[in-house]
Amino acid sequence: MITKGMYRNPKLLNIAKDIDTCHGCGRYRPKEIVAAHSNSLSHGKGTRIKAHDCFISYLCHECHTYVDSDSKATRQEKFDFWRNAHDITILWLFINKVNI
Known about the structure:
Elements: H1 10-14, E1 34-37, E2 56-59, H2 61-69, H3 75-95
Antiparallel strand pairs: 1-2
């Protein structure tokens, strides 16, 4: 766990506004994509505290809701889904040479 301070980067979060495809389901969702933070304690998540901003995935509303509150999925299933989307998000940032 990272314990010294929280990494915050509004620019990284705001990039979501320019994404038109969800990194979770792959659907075309212009102007609907948000930066969804990890729910893992190892990523800095705490009670009423979001994880570090580097632990995000660009998701549509439906996928963000699934990760945050779907009661039918296990915690591991939701984390695995978020983690796959996170990997796609990180790769997207590098491929597009985003300057953050």
